[in-house]
Write a structure and sequence with these properties.
Layout (H helix, E strand, L loop, with lengths): L1 E6 L4 E8 L3 E9 L1 H4 L7 H22 L9 E7 L3 H18 L2 E6 H6 L12 E6 L4 E8 L2 E7 L5 H11 L6 H11 L21 H13 L3 E2 L4 E2 L5 H29 L5 E5 L6 H13 L3 E3 L3 H4 L4 H12 L12
The structure holds 5'-O-[(R)-(carboxyoxy)(hydroxy)phosphoryl]adenosine and zinc ion (ZN).
Length: about 325
């Protein structure tokens, strides 16, 4: 079976080709990051317009790189939820039109399920396992029992982890996206926990990152580095402060992740491995901390390569493949959500 997958849920226009025999044959994308950078976040209207421009060339490039004739494709998999409606709609309408015109089967894929199974593009994690998915739009902990069988056991009550990175970076006018910038700065402070932001105690396996962002804000105010009324950072160019804030923030985030993983492990004592996925899993410090924790518990730990952590269509193709094999096809009336 050969699948063409299309992903346009946020700010990446992505397409991939996957075959049963060979696995991933191509995975290409256009990242809109430069279009959104000056706004400090994704602007939905700009995202939709860019998807519309790029979808056709990206799909063509995915087929070319895979050296795949369109006749060879059996099934088109497409992300139809969750995401920005205007963005999702471009990929969905394109996939449906292609499927209808060329008489291909259609499969709907949940973007989060794509992330949850993204580690399978490079590894074979045993079931059951825990999956920590952390990105700009979502942060949840899943118990994964089989292909397509996964259950959310904890989620963020407010901001996603990546959103917290982006907001903290924005507080200090560091640029967008915040994750990679904060990681670099944290390294300059040797990943020390200088300011000891509070690790909020949580009775459940849920997360709350809005409180952490607020703790950073009020700590900056206390240090005279932020004017709350003018909403202005008062210490631009103070690299020592930015590094120490970044480092303290990152160590706090690592502790929160490990606390929830540890509690999930105790509640689910049959789990055999842990996977850490989504854009935030590009963070080497977090990945190392989670891997070390897993080692100490004799659990295998899998973190996908950077290109499969951030949004991509290869993970959509992988999920699309097992759904197609199970006969879970959609019809041409497929809609968002
Ligand atoms: O998965 P992704 O590409 O898109 C979403 O589905 O949201 O994740 C993007 C998020 C952004 O919030 C970005 O700041 C964060 O992932 N991110 C990182 C790192 N690289 C990207 N967060 C922490 N450390 C990083 N190195
Ligand atoms: Zn995502």
């Amino acid at each position: 079976m050969t699948i063409l997958a299309i992903e346009t849920s946020c700010d990446e226009t992505a397409a991939a080709v996957y075959s049963t025999q060979t696995g991933i044959r191509s995975s290409v994308l256009f990242s809109q990051i430069e279009l959104h950078r000056r706004f400090g976040g994704v602007v939905p209207e700009i995202a939709s317009r860019s998807h519309l421009e790029k979808i056709s060339p990206i799909v063509t490039e995915a087929c070319e790189q895979a050296q795949c004739d369109f006749n060879e494709i059996d099934t088109i998999a497409v992300t139809n939820r969750p995401g920005l409606p205007g963005s999702l709609l471009i990929g969905l309408a394109y996939a449906k039109a292609l499927a209808y015109a060329h008489k291909k089967q259609l499969v709907a894929v949940n973007h989060i399920e794509g992330h949850v199974f993204s580690s399978f593009l490079e590894f074979s994690p045993p079931f059951p396992h825990l999956c920590l998915t952390a990105s700009g739009g979502h942060t949840s902990l899943y118990r994964v029992d089989a292909y397509g069988s996964y259950r959310e056991i904890g989620t963020t009550l407010d901001d996603a982890a990546g959103e917290a990175f982006d907001k903290v970076a924005k507080l200090m006018n560091l640029g967008y996206p915040g994750g990679p910038i904060i990681e670099k700065l944290a390294q300059k402070a040797a990943f020390q926990d200088v300011f000891k932001y509070p690790r909020l105690k949580q009775k459940t396996l849920d997360f709350s990152f809005s409180g952490l962002k607020t703790a950073v804000l009020y700590d900056l105010v206390k240090r005279g580095a932020y004017d709350l009324h003018a909403k202005k950072f008062l210490a631009p160019g103070d690299e020592k402060l930015a590094s120490e804030v970044s480092s303290s923030f990152l160590t706090c985030m690592a502790d929160i992740f490990i606390d929830r993983l540890e509690r999930a492990r105790r509640e689910h004592d049959d789990i055999r491995a842990v996977t850490f996925v989504g854009g935030v899993a590009c963070n080497q410090f977090l990945a190392q901390n989670i891997t070390q924790w897993a080692d100490s518990k004799k659990l295998a730990c899998y973190v996908p390569s950077r290109r499969f952590c951030t949004d991509n269509a290869a993970m959509i193709a992988f999920v699309g493949h097992y759904r197609a094999q199970a006969g879970l096809f959609a019809d041409y009336t497929l809609d968002l959500f």
